């Protein structure tokens, strides 16, 4: 895997202020070795100018041809109604026509900060005024809901200016008086003399009664002296110890009003108000899609749906110089198998029979809307490498008067962003059609798992879930074969052939080089062998009931599963249920090497690395044999997730972890995860290639992937929840006319054993104007990229360096905007581009995540686990993970069926009369204020008062009351479509468990370090000012 990029080079230093810094991120431009950039056939200018298809038009151009009339005269607004054909027959593709292009994203927006300043004074219609500058032109027209008070999504920058919403003035010199904006509160608290400029202009803190429960000191009062010494002014990163829950009352500091700084909730709500519930069509190149938090219907009209691909920006800078100047990562987050809702069209399947897909001779790009047909339809020019190719005779079609093929809207590959091809034998291993995949269940039957009932639970559940093995949509039964292995420090294979009276066990005691003792009867059709299998599953808990074996092996188990798949010549997935550190004598034997002394040293990275290289080479073998591993871990102590977890990470599997598993509390979560995982949409033996048009290329890949070279992303399997983040870099100039085109092709085997190609195409704009770049950014994708690149870097770099780079790059991106895009204004103003208003708060959440925070309070396994989860997350999952959803429950209207509006993740938003739900995709908390309304307590828990609530539950009781029904419905909506089942934790205000909960109030100062949002914003502001000076 490529290690270049993120932190391969040191960050720019404080001693190099200014905007002309050479960034470590962009050191690979102009690499002449890249094939697609080699000079070749030049683009003929004639045909392209006149006949470029809609997807290729730069903003502002007119759509080609009459917008309402397709080549076939069809007038249906729905272009591809009905389900796609999934058989191998030619697709019954419904012709349609291109609809009129929707308005381009605010082409004529005024970007005047001065004007905004004056607008600002008249727009205090909601409490988030500063962040939400009004807009005359939202990207999708005016907001539709009258009930929404705020202005629509504003394409203008946010501006924080002196006056009532002032940030402290920035330093003019590093050491000058008043230079450190952080110094005033610190000095104030410590009683030290010090300049406190503009304090008089601060808003007082919110009234205590409105924001805080009794006994709490406001988070923002907890400035620690440590900040004064923070070299990079990343405040609060290394506190002396955990913050006190009920400290002394805050001193009367003047404080920036939290309501005056950009609010993620407001940004999310604004996007929902302007774009929610609408149809989003992908016909315009470079269009910024609705946020991941906005529900809408997506219609593919030539570019891949944002469910499949999201980008950090939808407008790339034309030159590498501009890219270096802005330091905005150019990246795409690709989720090739993303689930689409039932009201959106699934992918069409194209079958060219033995001819196979039509591809460019030179760059091998697949036929797509970016190919330009010329010479009467006899040839086409590749949109990626510009090569002119002959059209194969079977594929010939005449062109219409504006140069479009007459069948353009009858062929998915000519008019859609995403579609599938049936792959020919050329695309199969050994030129043979693949066998359907197999699932192998591998159960750790060591003493503790038998004792706590886990083995029995798994065996019972398998009887049910095996009935739901995934299958092709048109098939009646699943083609997936199944097999069973149990193990402790030896392995037991089971013959479950259908003609046996009962299963036969074969024991393999030599774990140094595992072989598969049986082929016939190990992998079977579940339906055929059902009675033998059920009999086996009944017997397994009995078989090992008297076992005292505590030791386990792990690598030989994976090896055995992989060898079994290899022998059966099929791809597959191992479901491994494992509990302990594998200490038995065998390859991959591990010792407890969890060493807290390494934390906060340059050697901390060792904790994230595998203990031996056995696991990486085993994972590599698994990928080579298309064996994906999903690992269910039930640790009661350190199990070395960094080593064990490498196998699922590199093989495209999933890691689930249930700490201190307790049958009565945790079965629900585990069983749900198991059911969902087995039923998931999944592709096997996958190889992904990302092609780009000339001038830029994919340089780095992050995800649950394996790479043997720099271009082919290999995955033993990939499911609907896994995303790969791809970074791009320039190697030449990009043109505003032709834009930046991306084609992601995934070759894979379906659950039924068909070899297919899944193609996603996306066209981005290019501009030489920095303003266009900033206007088209998507902060949620930026955070996904930053998180994955930083979490990859923890294997090689000290965490301190990584945190510094993140802070620096944030400041740099914003300073570049300030210098080049915003109108001149006082240096004390913090001006944020509209698209990045919440970048600081999200970035701070990333910095405070336990992976990047060097603190001994969080277990190494937990940090490693979270690191691994984030590496495969898509944009929606990472958004929720870093900025949890906090919903007030006590204000619910029991008749309503919609989610209540979320509030910001800060303790100041809680109230002791309130009940709140907080979810981040892994955990879900129900927080109960000490004065929660008794009728709500009764309705939810069926107990008379707060004191009677038993917090030792992970499922809410079914009380039958409206409150109970509604709360459980809300929780199921939140859980829906999330890859992990969230474990419910009931938290009573002022009880010990609240410490855990408070870690998720991410706008506040972290319990184990990490600054508050307000402090971080001040810190970033100061950095920006230093850069501008
Ligand atoms: Zn090409």
From TrEMBL:
A single Gene Ontology CC annotation of this entry is: cytosol
Q: Where is the Zinc finger Sec23/Sec24-type domain?
A: 357-395
Q: Which residues form the Sec23/Sec24 helical domain?
A: 779-878
Q: Does the keyword Protein biosynthesis apply?
A: no
Task: State where the protein is found.
Answer: Cytoplasm, Cytosol; Cytoplasmic vesicle, COPII-coated vesicle membrane; Endoplasmic reticulum membrane
Keyword field: Cytoplasm, Cytoplasmic vesicle, Endoplasmic reticulum, ER-Golgi transport, Membrane, Metal-binding, Phosphoprotein, Protein transport, Transport, Zinc
Regions of biased composition (Polar residues) lie at: 1-17, 110-127, 211-223
GO MF annotations, alphabetized: SNARE binding; zinc ion binding
Composition bias type Pro residues, residue spans: 60-69
Membrane topology classification: Peripheral membrane protein
- Outline the segment boundaries, as ranges, of region: Disordered: 1-260
Q: Which SUPFAM superfamilies match?
A: beta-sandwich domain of Sec23/24, C-terminal, gelsolin-like domain of Sec23/24, Helical domain of Sec23/24, vWA-like
Its chief place of residence is cytoplasm
Q: Where is the Sec23/Sec24 beta-sandwich domain?
A: 683-766
**What positions does the domain Sec23/Sec24 trunk occupy?**
434-677
Tell me the protein family, please: Belongs to the SEC23/SEC24 family. SEC24 subfamily.
Name the chain's protein.
SEC24 homolog D, COPII coat complex component
Q: What species was this sequence derived from?
A: Nannospalax galili
The beginning of the lineage is: Eukaryota, Metazoa, Chordata, Craniata, Vertebrata
Which gene name does the record give?
Sec24d
